[in-house]
């Protein structure tokens, strides 16, 4: 997790978002334990209640479960559930802006696909093509 916090959002929410990113990127998988509240609080110099609040949001969303005396663990299917929600959010909120930008710049689908394939090919071969 990145120790830098921004001023735009409460820290507990940023912490929640970082755990979500770790699940989506498969850093954390089904059944994996989250770092303990105490460890995260100590490592990032946060109030343990702040960490607990971020973790509690994950529990409330059904992504993580508390196991008394053992810690918190990623629920089975959490990544699938997140992918579904994130894809829907993207299609509703981000995609319309992207489509408008594509139209404004008069970009062609074939050119966009070629560029995407080029980036993916570079990524797959271990190179950076930015």
Textual characterization of the structure:
The chain has 5 helices and 2 strands, in the order H-H-H-E-E-H-H. It is mainly alpha-helical and 130 residues long. The chain folds into 2 domains: 11-76, Arc Repressor Mutant, subunit A; 92-124, no CATH class. Strands 1-2 form a two-stranded antiparallel sheet. The protein starts with 10 loop residues before the first helix and ends in a 6-residue tail after the last helix.
Produce a short descriptive summary.
The chain is mostly helical. The chain contains five helices and two strands, in the order αααββαα.
CATH architecture verdict of the largest domain:
Orthogonal Bundle
Going across the major beta sheet, what is the strand order? Answer: 1-2
Instruction: State the major sheet.
Output: 2 strands, antiparallel
Radius of gyration from the CA trace?
Answer: 19 Å
Helix content: 55-70%
Classify the beta-strand content into a percent band. 5-15%
What is the CATH topology of the largest domain?
Answer: Arc Repressor Mutant, subunit A
Top CATH class of the largest domain: Mainly Alpha
Characteristic terms for this protein:
single chain; 130 residues; mainly alpha; 2 domains; two-stranded antiparallel ribbon; elongated
Which secondary structure elements does this structure contain, and how are they paired or packed?
Blueprint: H1 11-24, H2 37-44, H3 48-60, E1 64-67, E2 71-74, H4 78-104, H5 109-124
Antiparallel strand pairs: 1-2
Helix pairs in contact: 1-3, 2-3
